[in-house]
Every structure is written in C-alpha cells, then in structure tokens.
Design goal:
The complex is a heterodimer.
Chain A (H helix, E strand, L loop, with lengths): L6 E14 L2 E14 L3 E5 L6 H8 L7 E6 L2 E2 L5 H11 E4 L11 H9 L8 H7 L15 H13 L5 E5 L7 H18 L2 E5 L11 E6 L2 E7 L12
Parallel strand pairs in A: 3-8, 3-9, 6-7, 7-8
Antiparallel strand pairs in A: 1-2, 1-4, 4-5, 9-10
Chain B lengths: L4 H12 L1 H39 L4 E9 L2 H6 L4 E7 L1 E7 L7 E8 L11 E5 L9 E5 H6 L7 E6 L2 E12 L19 E7 H7 L5 E9 L5 H12 L8 E2 L4 H42 L1 H9 L4 H41 L11 H27 L23 H20 L1 H39 L4 E9 L2 H7 L4 E16 L2 E10 L23 E4 H7 L6 E6 L6 E10 L7 E4 H8 L5 E8 L4 H10 L3 E6 H55 L4 H38 L12 H27 L3 H6 L3
Classes of the chains: A alpha/beta, B alpha+beta.
The structure holds adenosine-5'-triphosphate (ATP) and magnesium ion (MG).
Magnesium ion binds next to helix 1 of chain A.
C-alpha cells in the first residue's frame, strides 16, 4: 500500500444545473472527487441525489454547467462533441440500468457492435465467456432473461478492454442471485483487466465489495469511505 | 467478407419492417417505372423519327395548289433557301377494297419515274417500285395493306375521274409524310379506311388531267433558312394558280400529331413520376421519422458506445437509400416491360421502318438519381432528428409521453366518446403534425385515384360528346369537288337515307396580325340537327347569322377573342379575302375548327348553294346497301360510317387508353395501400407496449384493435375530402398540361367517380387495417413488455 495508484478522474467543483423554464434544478453542487486506477468504486445516495448525472458527465455523455473533469491529463469539460465521442469510443465501457441492447442483434452481434470500432478489442466470444454467456451468443435479447441481458451488456462494455467501466444500477432490475452473477462479472473484469470501475447502486450491501464508497446527497458529496476489506460478491449480505 | 454489426442491424431492421419497406419501395417503383416508360418511349420515338426524317429527306414546307404549270418549278427552285424540291400530283379517291364493306379512300401521290423523290422519299418495305410502262401499278402504304390483309399483287378498285380502275399493288412502302395516317376531317385514325398510294407521275397526271402541271409541292430548306420567308415566297408564286396556302412542317398533319404525342410523353414523363416520387419521399419521411423515434434509446446507446453522428447518420440514411434502390431496380424492370408494351401500341398508330423500345443508360441513371435524391430528402429530417438524440438519454428510462385533453374533447363529447374513443382522440391530438402527415398521405392516394378514374370518365365523355351530341349523323359523305345543290336530292334518294344535311367546307387561311392558321371553315345551317357545334359540356352553341365561331385554342393561336376581326383568305373559288368578326368561341374538345352560317358563307363566296359534303341519318338495315352504292359514285371522295368509327375507336384507341389509365389506377391503389399500411404499422409498433399493457389489464383484442384501427378510420375520414380537393387541383393541372391543339380534356368530377374513389381508398384502408389487425392478434405480450427497445 505504498504506491498510490494514478488518478483516473479528477473532478473539481462540478456543478450541473437543469433549467426547466423558471425552475432550476441543481443536480450537482460543486462536487470534487478523485477516482484511482484499478479501483472499484461504488456511488451511493438517495434517488435524485445526482448519481446518474455525475456518471454521465464522467463518461462524456453529458457536459457540466461548470467545474472541471480531468480524465488523466485530458480536460473533458473543454472537449467538444467529437472529442467526447472519441473518448467514449476509446476508453469507456457503459453498462446501463435498462441494458439498452439493440433488439435486432444477437448477443454476440451486440458485442461486435463495440469490438468493430475499438483498437484492441477482445474476441466477442471471449467477452461473453467472461459473463458466462458464450452458449447463448446466438440468441436475441428478447430470448434472454433480464439478468442475461444485463450480462450481455457487461460483455459489450468490457469487450473493448476499456480503461474505465461505468455502470448505472446494473443490478437494479435483478433479483439477488442474478445480481450476484452480474456483480461477479464486474469484479472479475476489475480484478482481471485492472479496469477502473464505478458502479451506481441503491443497495448499500454492494459497497462491501468496493475499494471506495462515495455517498451523494442532494447533489453534494456526503462522504467518502476507503475500504480495505473487500468482499467477494457471493459473500455479500443483502 | 463479414458484414459489420451495424449493417446487420440495418438488414434486420429492414426485414422487420419489410411490409412497410416494401410498400414504400413499390411506390418508388411505380414512379420510376413511369419515368422510365414515358421518357424512354419519348427517346425511342424521337430518335426513330429523326433518323427516318433524315434518311427519307422529309420536307420542311408543303403547299397545295389547284393546278400549276410544270414550268413554274424552275422559279420555285429559285426561292432563297430551297435545298430540294419536288412537285407532285396528289388526288384523293374512293376505293373499293376486296373484303371491306365500307368505301375506303386513298390519297394518290405521284412519284417521279427513273429516280427517287428529292423530298419525302419512300422507304420500300417489300415488293418493287412501279413500272412507268404500267399505269395501274401502285406502291401502297404499309398500314393500309396490313390492316386490310392485302398482299403484293392484290388489286383495289379506285374511282378515278369517274371510272372504276383496278390498281395493282406491286410494293409496300412507308413515308415520313404518313407516319400517322388520318383521313382529313376524321378524329380517329382507321388504317383500314384510309391510306396513301404512290403512282407513277405520268399515269397519275393523265388520270386527273394534270399533264404538264402539278398540284402539290414539298420542299426542303437549307440549314438556317427561314420557313416563314419560303412560305411567303411560295404563296406569292402559287397565288395565280389557286394556292391553298403553304404550311411549315410543324403544321403537317402527321408531324403535328406525332409532335403532340411526344410533348405529352415528355410532360407525363415528368409530372407523374414527380407526384409518385414526392409521395414516396413523403411516406418514407413519415415511416422513417416514426421508426427512428422508436429507436431513440438504441441511438443513444450507440452514441454512448462511441458511434459518432456521421456513422449513425449514414446508418439511417442507408435505410432510406436501400429502399429507394430496391424501388428503382424494380421500377426500371417494370418500366422497360411497360415501355415495350406501349411501343407495340405506338407501332399500331405510327408507321416507322423500325420502332423499337430503347432505353438510354442516362435515363436509368436519372431515375436512380431522382429517387435517391427524393429518398434522401425524405430521410433528411428524420435522420437529423435521430442523430440529435443526446447520448445521456440511454441512461434514463423513457419519459412517459405527455398527453392532454384536446380542445374538441369537451365534457359532453367525452361522455359520448367512451374510453376507446377518448384514446383515439387524444392520440391524434397528441401529435397533430403526425396525424396531419398521415392525412396528407392518404389524401394524395385519394387524389391520384380520383384523377385516374376521372380520366376514364373524360374519355367516355368525349366519345359521347362526339358521337351522340356533336355528330349525330350515321354517315358522313365528302365530295371530290363541291357539288351543286341538286346532289342533295340525289343523296336523299340513296338507299336507307332518312335525313340528309348539306355541308359546305371551305379551305381558308385565318390571319390576325402576323399569326395565321389554315383551316376548313365549316358552313352549317342554324337548324342543323345532325352536325352541331358543341362545347365540352355538351351545350349546343347557337350559330350567329354573321361572323365566325372559333374553337378556343384556334382563337388562342390567333390571339383573338370575341368581337375581334379576323382576316379570312379563302383558298378556293374566287379566293375572296374577307374581314370577319369573331362572333363566338366554342370550348370544344378536339382539333381546331371554324364555323359559320352556311348561307352567309355562300354569299361571301359568291356561289350558289354548293355543297362539299353531307351528313346522313340512315336506316341501319340499309347501311350495307348504301355503302356499296357510295363506293361506286365518282363524285364521292369518302364516306365515314359512325358505327365503324366507333367500333374502331373502342377496339383500338379506347382499349389502349384504358390500359394506361388502368395502370395509373393500379399505381394509385398501391399508394393508398402503402400510405395507410405504413401509418397503421407505425402506430402499432409505436404503441405496442401500451396496447400490450392494456391487454394485460384485461382489454380484449377487439377493444385494443378498436383503439388502433379507430385512429386509422378517423384519419381516413379526414383524408377523403382533403384528397378530393387535392385531386381536383391535380386533375386541372394535368388536363392543362395535356391541353393541345389535337385534344383538350375537360376535367370534371362526377359523383359516382368520387364515390368509387372513396370506396377504393376505404377498401385499401380496410385491407391494410386487416393486415395490421393480424399482427395485433399475434402481439406477444411477454416479449413486448420485457424489452425496452
Ligand atoms: N434531463 C433532466 N432535466 C431536468 N432535470 C433532470 C434531468 N435529469 C436529471 N434531472 C434532475 O436532476 C436530479 C439528479 O438526477 P439524477 O438522475 O442524477 O439522480 P439519481 O441520483 O441518478 O437518481 P436515481 O437514483 O433515482 O436514478 C434529479 O432531481 C432529477 O430530477
Ligand atoms: Mg439514476
């Protein structure tokens, strides 16, 4: 524990304001945070606290109203749309709460969608192997259960060997045992590939498998907890 | 080669939407096939015509004269700009054709001995040229020979100078002057009853007392020479010999008809495809916009995964282009197929050595370009909206669509509507622009159908007008030379004749300022009951006792209106030059006509009650008898039997016209089905979640069908009146585009036609609703609810 890992995301005074006519909604209020390489971070917080907003900005899906986000040395807040697209394409894997698979493509093809546009991707089958779905690779999303769809989404996210993996409530729609399978897949990627992983969840039990737990409340950082006794997903008590 | 995942998605999306994609592609194909058919036919006709004109040295200026001495020819050749000239003897005779009941007539044209004509050379199809030593040999026009089943060596009887002579056909030929053959004064061509014959100059001159003279001139001009100046010079030189007025090529009957057909082909070749491709672009836009709206979450996810705007824009543009290309390919094939069929029809009316269907690659390229542009235009807004989707949207659940009570939905109406009715109304009200788009699409289909059906009506109307109102006689007789009024009594004593109405037609050149036209002025009596002046609505136009009644287009050609004076240079008899007022205009449907009261005409001509023809009402049982009698009468140049003309018209022309109209109506039906089916399918896919949820809540299939199909029904109900208006505008526009000196089409809507149109659109709606209903019944509740698309 002597060498501090490199900083992947350096967030300073991040503010996001949604304007809906006369009303202003402060989704994020001057948030400052750091995320380190190879860490598994969990974002906790009540509904509406700004978790998704933060994650979206980190992933280059959205831009803040003010403040700064550095990805290693690149300033994401100064990047244009094309640069953000390139950033996502090269470095980021997303896992969405609602899977967002392309219904007209099979599991394998959904993964190929990403491998085709990345520089040094895995074989799509290997990616599916990592989530235990290789045997189902020719099935369409409609032929898979919710958890299986989520695992395909994870395979799709990791297939390009991204530097960071961002997951917005990956287990939100899943039961415990399926949730565990999904989390195991994430943990394996985090450990095996050294992918920096940030996971949003409502389930504080999940924080037990994290290196770091960030709590948000009302758009502000309510607490950061460094953890040393990481547990395996299987050992979590829900 | 592996297909990229994105392209695979494209293929599967297209496959899922195959019904819709097919419907759009078929509309595109319809437009393309018309484009290819009309413009290729135009090209084929045009290039064949030009090659034929060139090869046979078709004349630039034509003139007829009563009788000019052969010595004049030298002076005619001296007219500046004349490159080649041929003087001829031309005569019209009555023919007795073996196996033909009615008398036919032939135009005998002289050909020089020992050399080919300098102007209007013949294309000898088979047989040989006439032998100058055998005066009864003729070369006959191919149309006439084919229509009557004649062979080389067959004979036809001709009444020449009062004597029946048998002419032997030794050759069959085509001429650039007779590509289109119609007996002067007739409306529809009939190859059996009229055709050209070429005879040795000396033999023909001897038969008509034209030795040492001629009565017809055709000449070619040097490039760049003005035909106006040549006509003026020609008229001046021929004047003393009874000139009937020289005309430029543009007014030569065969050329004039061919040109008007070509113009129509060109107009149609643009207007119709324009309408169809416009509609295709429009439904493509609607279908694509809605399909892409459904794909919003997918688009957002793809963007989150790192696909850029260009890649996504191109991905969805390909969607449209693939449909357009498929439509183009099918359209070109169909267009060639129809083009070949239509060229076959042209070969019945236009006589060329070879008229083959040819398609220039440029036309295919243009068609493809046009559809790709319209598809791109149709796709543009949809794709632009799609790529504007922010990628963060992928991370959010879909926002529930916002609904509101619409303005029409007052409390009283609500109670009356019930829950399904309310859903229908709110759904239309939620996206008024979308609803409007569907209404416009269905309205277009309605309009095209309406126009197609109406033109069937119009043709029928023209036939009725012509044969039941304007020309009520059974037989029309014309004389070689004007006859004294005694003939009237002779005519009324012919077998079966019940009423005989005299007719006086005088060739004249009408002039107003520098504009002129050579026409026949028809003298009729105010109490005529058989041949009357009828406008397009069938109204009888009363004949003023003084002045002329002109066809509207003739007045337009001359630039005159009612009350204006026209200079009338009579080209017969004492050749008086008169100033006559335009006493009335008649909005008639065919040709360029001028009428005046027959008594006035006689007075102006300073002649007695001479007649140049007669209209007869005949006892049907005696028609055969009458026709064989007429054949023998030397004074008779021709006799037209209404029955035969009608039969001919219905057999040939009407059948062909109807063919092209049926094709148009078929295509319009495709549009109707395409639009409605698309609208219904899009609503279905858009709302399958909602409808599935309703099913889960316990709604029956019938109830949810009602929600979806009720919407289609409501939109169709709105579209029908809108389409009627649109169709009316479109019809008037097309009728105007078709307006020519040969034909005018009155565009009028009749109640049965509107009713048929509505029924057809409703049938197309019901069909597509049934197709959608089938899908609705198979709606997989579990699958629909499981997937967040
Ligand atoms: N597009 C938007 N327009 C307006 N307000 C928004 C928008 N997106 C988010 N918000 C608001 O910003 C705040 C933070 O939203 P965010 O989605 O980040 O919350 P969250 O912590 O992810 O909540 P949850 O756990 O429910 O997903 C909320 O109050 C939300 O209503
Ligand atoms: Mg959230």
């Amino acid at each position: 524990m002597s060498v501090t890992p490199a900083v992947v995301f350096d967030v300073t005074d991040l503010t996001k304001v949604y304007r809906m006519g006369e009303v202003e909604i402060h989704a994020l209020r001057r948030v400052s945070l750091r995320f380190h390489e190879g860490h598994f971070a969990v974002l906790l917080g009540p509904s509406g606290s700004g978790k998704s907003t933060l994650l979206n900005i980190l992933g280059g899906l959205d831009v803040p109203t003010s403040g700064r986000v550095l990805y290693r040395t690149d300033d994401l807040t100064a990047a244009g749309e094309a640069a953000l697209t390139a950033f996502r394409r090269r470095h980021v894997g997303f896992v969405f709460q609602f899977y967002n698979l392309i219904p007209s493509l099979t599991a394998r093809e959904n993964v190929s969608l990403v491998t085709e546009i990345s520089d040094a991707p895995m074989d799509p089958d290997d990616a599916l192997d990592m989530v235990g779905l290789r045997p189902r690779r020719h099935h369409f999303p409609a032929q898979l259960s919710g958890g299986e769809q989520q695992r395909v989404a994870i395979a799709r996210a990791i297939a390009k060997r991204p530097a960071v993996l961002l997951c917005d409530e990956p287990t939100g729609a899943l039961d415990i045992s399926t949730g565990v399978v999904v989390l195991e897949a994430l943990a394996r990627v985090n450990a095996g590939l050294g992918t920096t992983t940030i996971v949003i969840t409502h389930n504080s039990a999940i924080s037990e498998m994290a290196d770091r737990v960030v709590r948000l409340a009302d758009g502000q950082v309510a607490g950061v907890e460094e953890r040393t006794d990481k547990r395996a997903p299987r050992e979590l008590s829900w | 080669m592996t297909i990229s995942a994105l392209n695979r998605k494209l293929l599967r999306d297209l496959l899922t939407m195959r019904g819709q994609a097919l419907a759009i592609a078929v509309v595109v194909a319809a437009g393309v096939s018309m484009f290819v058919m009309y413009l290729s036919n135009f090209d084929s006709l045009r290039s064949t015509q030009q090659a034929f004109y060139q090869q046979q040295r078709f004349g630039d200026v034509f003139a007829s004269v009563k009788r000019a001495p052969a010595s004049l020819e030298r002076r005619l050749r001296g007219i500046p700009g004349v490159a080649a000239l041929e003087t001829r003897v031309v005569a019209t005779v009555t023919l007795d054709v073996p196996g033909l009941e009615e008398p036919a007539s032939g135009q005998l044209i002289s050909i020089p001995a020992g050399r080919r004509p300098e102007v209007n050379d013949l294309f000898l199809r088979r047989g040989r040229w006439v032998d100058p030593a055998r005066p009864d040999e003729v070369v006959a026009g191919e149309g006439f020979v084919d229509a009557n089943g004649l062979e080389l060596g067959d004979q036809v009887g001709a009444v020449i100078n009062g004597r029946l002579r048998d002419l032997t056909i030794v050759g069959v030929a085509l001429s650039p002057e007779h590509i289109y053959n119609i007996r002067p004064g007739e409306i529809f061509p009939d190859d059996r009853l009229y055709g050209p014959f070429w005879m040795d100059r000396r033999a023909l001159a001897a038969a008509f007392d034209m030795e040492g003279g001629f009565n017809d001139v055709a000449l070619r001009l040097t490039p760049g020479a003005s035909s106006g100046a040549a006509i003026a010079a020609l008229d001046r030189l021929l004047e003393p010999y009874g000139a009937l007025g020289a005309i430029p090529r543009a007014l030569q009957l065969s050329h004039w008809t061919l040109e008007s057909e070509l113009t129509q082909l060109q107009n149609f070749g643009f207007i119709l495809p324009l309408i169809f491709l416009g509609v295709a672009a429009f439904i493509l836009n609607v279908a694509l916009t809605r399909a892409l709206a459904l794909q919003r979450p997918q688009i957002a996810a793809l963007k989150a995964l790192g696909y850029d705007n260009l890649a996504l824009g191109w991905h969805y543009a390909k969607w449209a282009l693939a449909i357009a290309l498929a439509g183009t390919a099918a359209g070109v094939v169909a267009g060639v197929w129809m083009g070949v069929a239509i060229i076959d029809i042209y070969n019945q009316f236009f006589r060329f050595p070879v008229l083959l269907f040819e398609i220039r690659p440029a036309i295919v390229v243009q068609a493809a370009g046009l559809t790709l542009v319209s598809a791109a235009a149709g796709a543009f807004t949809a794709v632009r909206r799609a790529v504007a989707v922010p990628p963060a949207e992928a991370m959010r659940p879909e926002a529930p669509a916002s609904y509101a009570r619409s303005a029409v939905e007052t409390r009283a109406v609500s109670r009356y509507l019930g829950i399904t009715g309310r859903m229908v109304v709110r759904n239309i009200g939620r996206r008024p622009m979308r609803a409007a788009a569907s209404v416009v699409g269905i309205a277009f289909a309605t309009a095209i159908l309406l126009v197609g059906f109406t033109f069937i009506d119009v043709i029928d109307h023209l036939i009725t007008l012509q044969f039941s109102f304007a020309e009520r006689q059974d037989v029309t007789v014309s004389f070689v030379e004007p006859q004294s009024s005694d003939v009237r009594y002779a005519l009324s004593r012919l077998p079966g004749v019940l009423i005989s109405e005299p007719q006086r037609t005088v060739a004249a050149r009408l002039r107003a300022g520098h504009r002129f036209r050579t026409v026949g002025i028809t003298g009729t009596s105010t109490d005529a009951t058989l041949r009357r002046i009828i406008d397009m609505d069938g109204t009888v136009i009363p004949l003023p006792s003084n002045g002329l009644v002109l066809s509207r287009p003739l007045a337009e050609v001359l630039g005159v209106s009612g009350g204006d004076l026209v200079t009338v240079e009579v080209l017969e008899g004492a050749r008086p030059v008169l100033q006559l007022p335009v006493a009335g205009l008649v909005d008639d449907a065919m040709g360029l006509s001028a009428y005046m009261e027959v008594g006035t005409l006689h007075r102006l001509m300073r002649e007695g009650e001479v007649i140049s023809g007669a209209a007869l009402r005949v006892d049907a049982r005696a028609e055969a008898d009458l026709s064989s009698t007429l054949k023998q009468l030397p004074a008779v140049a021709g006799a037209g039997f209404k029955e035969a003309a009608l039969r001919n018209f219905r057999d040939v022309l009407a059948a062909n016209l109807n063919l092209s109209i049926i094709v148009n109506v078929f295509f319009a039906g495709i549009i109707a089905f395409g639009v409605v089916y698309n609208a219904a399918r899009v609503s279905l896919s858009e709302r399958s979640r909602e409808l599935a949820s309703l099913r889960v809540l316990g709604f029956t299939r019938a109830e949810i069908s009602l929600i979806l199909l009720g919407e289609i029904a409501a939109l169709t109900a709105l579209a029908l009146p809108a389409g009627t208006l649109l169709g009316w505008g479109m019809g008037v526009w097309i009728a105007e585009a078709l307006d020519s000196e040969v034909y005018r089409f009155p565009f009028m809507l009749s109640r049965p036609t509107v009713a048929w149109t509505f029924l057809t659109v409703i049938a197309a709606t019901v069909l597509s609703a049934l197709a959608v209903r089938r899908r609705l019944d198979r709606l997989d509740l579990v699958a629909v609810l499981k997937i967040r698309e």
